[in-house]
Request: fold
Amino acid sequence: MARKAKKKVVEEQPPADDDGNVTTEEESVHDDDDVQMKDSDDKDEEEETKKSKKTTGDKKSKKNKAKTSEPKEEEEETTTTMIPFMDTFYQLSSEDSPKDRSLAARDLIHHCFLVTNQEQQQEEGSISVGVVVNHQDAAYALTRLMNGLCTGRAASRQGFASCLTSFLRVAYSSSLNDGGGDGSSGAMDEILKEDDYAKKLKDTDASAHPTMIVRQKLLSTTQFLEVEGEKSNNNGKQGGQKKNHRFGSGGGGGKMKGIEERDHAFGRLFGILAVVRSGILGLEGCPSVVVEGFTKDLIELFHYKKWMREPSAHALIELLSSLDSESNKDLIAKVANDVITPTFFLFKGSNKPATDLADRAQWLQTLTPEQIAVALHLQMPRNDEDIKFEYPLDEPLVTAESVPTLSAALASTSSVVHPRCHVVWNTLWMYLTEEKDKSQEGSHHRQLRTNNEEFPSIIEKIIQHVVVDILLGKGEDISRPTNERRSLALQIVCSLSGSSSSSDLKIALPPNLIGSVLCPEVIVRVFANVLCASGGGPKKKKATEGGSSSSVEHHLKPLTSQALADLIDCYCEDDDVGRRMALAKAFLLTDPRFDNKTKTRTISSLLMLENSSSSSGSETSSEKSEKKREALWQQYRSFLEEEIVSATSLHSATVYIELMYKLAKCDLTNAPANEAKRIVRFFMSGAFFDCSDLSDPSVVTNKKSKKKKGKAKTVAAAAGPPQELSSGLRIQEILKANGMSSISHPARAIMSARFYSLLSDFISVINSQNRGGNKNKAFYGTGSRPESIFQALSEICGICSLLETSGAKQFPVQSASLDSDDDASDAEDPIEASKKLMLQVQSIANDALVKECGGSGDEDILRAKAVFTTGCSSLMTSLYLQLNSCGKPDVNGDDEEEEEEDDDVEAVVEYISDLADCVDGFCKAIEDGSSYKADDDEENPLAAMAGLLVNILSSPVGGEDFDKSNPIQASASKLTRETVKLAWSGIISVITGLSSKNTSLKSLVDEDVMNILIESVCGEKSMGDEEEEDDDESIEGSVSSEDGLGDSAVFVDASESGMDLDEIKETSSVDSKESDDDDKKDDTDEDGDDDVELDRAKLDNLLLEDADSDAEMILEHHAGADKALAQLIKLKQEARKASQTERERVDLCNRLRCAGLLDSLFSVSVFKSGWLPIEAVLGSIAPILRSRKAIAKSIQMSTSANAKKSLSEKNALLDRLSALVKDKISKFRCNDNSEAAELALKASSDIYEEMKHSLNVAHCSCCSVALITAMRCISNIEENDVVKGIYVGAVDDWSSRKATKIHVCVFDDLVQRMPSLASLILVDPLVTAAKGAHSSFLKCESIKLLSAIYKHDSSNAEEQLTKKARNVMKESCIKVAVTLTDALGDSNLQKAKHRDEVLNATKHFINYVKSQNEAILTDSELCAMQDILKTVGGNCKSAGMKKLCSQVSDTISGLARRVDDEEPKSKRPKAPKTPKSSKKQKKSKK
Reply:
């Protein structure tokens, strides 16, 4: 008896009948059903083999357990209470969770098919289950499940379809206990006997197969468009009927509503999919007519609506996939040829144009994406023999020739929005690819089919015609690409790259196809333009919180960013380095600066350029990563080499050179930096050598006998070409491959500049790594820094020599002076002479290193000589490398540039010669041990060396060129500066190490050396006594007066400088270089005014302009001409001032570089060794302070635009000089020396005079630190009256003069750095200042200083208090107590900030008195202070200050009182008048 239940109806507004809302239903067909059916099927099969176990429990707890995802709870679900049969239908439509629907389907099937465990049998690995079927409930369930397919409520369609799939699978796979049934339909026959609709069909056709009855029942349940009567012929063809009669043969009744029609259409689709996924169509004995019938049903749904095409085609593909191609080959051919071909591929509807479908070309143009997908599925390559299809499937549909025709249909799928992709694309990728062999790496990926060579060209055609031409709008007559088209293009590219989120297919294309898929048009239009676009234009700008506006990002930017990140992650996880490099090449060839423009790390991540020094994971993974990085960087370097050499434009060459430079810098982080070394060799070989005739010395050519002339046998050495020549041979190979003779001169110039920069970076890294002491990561073993750098530079010179001997031609040096020595034809070439000197110094260094290793001699002397010679040899090598030239430019340049190069070459040659002499002289001083002063004609080697290094740093060779016209020289100077530091530090280390053995080395630091070093940093004549400069007011007045004149000031300046306006043209044509030497002496020299040329003819025309227009031809004065002349002169002066500012900036930069020499000389290690004379240290302080003051004043005066150009350099030099005084010289401590006191006193006086004229607080602070440094050199300083007089006068000047230049930092520094001296000499002056200072602020500052003296913390101080200082502090307590008492009652100090400072000072003073543990103050003094504290506390509004007054008062109460008899003999100062508030308190006590 069939059960009937009241149906619970939930009214919901169904979605409208449009394409957009149908997408959700389509997605449910493809996605959600898979999940539901899989869950329910697994549960049902499991239940068929087990008995149901009933336990107690409520329904609510069961639902909660079903929602959890833990494995333990999943196991417990099988033992929970079964859902009642009628409730399962409501649970099937639950939209809370797919798991709830799966549990309902399990319980429904379990109710209909009761499993009997005793009848389980195992036959050949499979379990045949006998069941007891509840026929009536099963028939009711079948009807109810089919009806539920037409319901749009919640998730009922998904749940009912999934349950129907499992129901049919169980019904057909089960047999009755009594052995009934035919064995092919299982229990389905008995179930259908209880169904009313099946009974009627059986009456008509008793032999009808159960599957046919299921189909008819499904069609009857899901009929729509009109209420159909009983169909007389359910299997008849209906392809040519009209829309209203397509699904039925007639019948009356009213037409359905649109929503009901839509629900029934989707119900039929879901029902057919349920039958297909149940697998009953592939069972043995299933009639072919049933398969054909379901195929026709799906094709009819395809023709029903456009939005039904894709789900119908998807279902048709699933139906064909459910049929085994081996066992059902004939059935598939029959269905395809008899049903699909005529009704699906060759169907000619009324809305199609008149086309001849028999013509294959015209037929291809009519195909839709869904038809292409079904055709590709049928033509899918199989392992066995292909199925024979009739026209039009007798030939492959997708070929390289047919892709352009099918491109429009494929591109039309852009209407399917992300993240879902049209079914045709997955089918196409399945058609073109196959699974990888499991033995290969990455077997989970798919690869192109190997049995068809046309497939790579098909992919290229798809990218070109579908993606580039149509989707990205590159083709002709194509509209502008929309976001939907860009999205589809992105999905296609990602799918082919193996990183698509819309497909589970992981395609691994070969490296040669990656560049075709990610072609420049795709990368630019899909990735770069989207990531760089702001999106929306000016109409879509939104205001930010700060009020500014920022553009809205592109609509596709989040999707594109995520897709790009997935793409990079996919390739980074791949072990195939070739594919990874191919992807990087695709982005690099499109735009080498892709990362910078898109603000991503695409190329950097692919090439492992980030975090190259960090290693994560185990050692095995680290080694594997290092090997992968090494292989990847080798391919990347080879790619860059090819692009640089074959570059046709300077821009392209420059970009790739910069990328190679970046690669080398990344490689420098890890030793041995092989890639960086190869790049250095490549830059050098390409920039300075013509490698067209380079030959490999490892290849030996042996000529045969004379009978076979012209025939030679080439025998390659087993070792291959030398590594030093590999870069040159690579350049030669690329040039020949591209038919080029040489690299262009501009590219060679950039390569040479990067060669010097990279070599200097290499030296810096070696320097830092060897200094750290981590020898395991050192580039050249365990050698010292000078040795490692010497070895690196020696290798470079050795490679140059090897290239020349192997046939490479070095480009000649362009120097007119070196080529014009006609008279001295026999003289040696200066460059060759420089090379000999360099090799000579290298030989000295090598000998020193060999002797040190052999231990033949004094160990300290050998070590010192090795350090010195290797440093100087490195400097000489770096200078010699600057003599390399990149040859003549392709187009002749200006003569001025040739003259500049000529000057640089001469300077380098001269520096090399002088350096060789310095090395010889210093080596003699090291070995002989005799003073150079013994011979009056001999020069101080240290002075010569210091002068040479200063000249190098101040010249374009090691500094900066004023004209900035030579970028090569600017890069080479960076290398020179690194080696200058090395050479100078070597000299300092030699003197430090040998000063105890060789006392003559101490005498090398004399007045000449210090003059050279100080003047290089502080300016010329800075060591002499200069007159005080003008005051600030006069300077400011002169500036303001000049500004006030305006344009008329130009004529004043012109007359003062002696300028003849009639000779402007002649004077302006003078070369500017003739006045560079005299510019500092006379800034208004005529020879220096060469920046602007005035046209005499134009000036005359201006003067006669008014006269020409006058009718009477009367020449009158023209005011406009005067103004024009003034503007021209002003323009000339501005150009001259800009030139002066630039020269000043370059001079400041050179001084900054020379400051490094002083830093090394005034280092802590030098001070500790004690060999640096006190005259050198103290004599340098005053010039440094004067120079600092001049720079600070120049910064204050920098108001014009030209002056501000050098402002950063001035600030940098100012900070450098301040650090030199505070951080370097302040560490100096003098040894016992009788002459030190006089020198220190003289230096202190000079510093004090400088301090009295300090410019600001910062300069005064520097003077204060310098003054303390000088005073520390005075022995028995506490007894020195001069020192006391300096500070007493300073306190008096500071407290009494309003225009004083002394600041409180002077006394703060003394208290912190020399507390004993401060306690002796500052207490009395500060007590006086606290009473008689001219302002309340100074009084408060005086009290703060007194508080600092008595707050002295001996544990944190630089030095401890002496006994005399402690006694003086105790004796001064009376004065300080009276001062503090008076300050508390002073009406001028009643402001909150002043009063708080005095109270804090009182607290510190009382704490000091308490810490002495003896009676210091009398009772009257303490009581007076206590009374005033109570008064002040009562007047305070701050609770904190009241508490402080109370605490101090309580502390005073506990102090010991000194009796009057113990009062010292010194006259006690007269007590001041007591404030009124104190009198009132005393009266109240009485």
About this structure: The chain has 62 helices and 13 strands. The CA atoms of residues 947 and 1012 lie 6 Å apart. The longest helix spans residues 1119-1161. The mean pLDDT is 78.
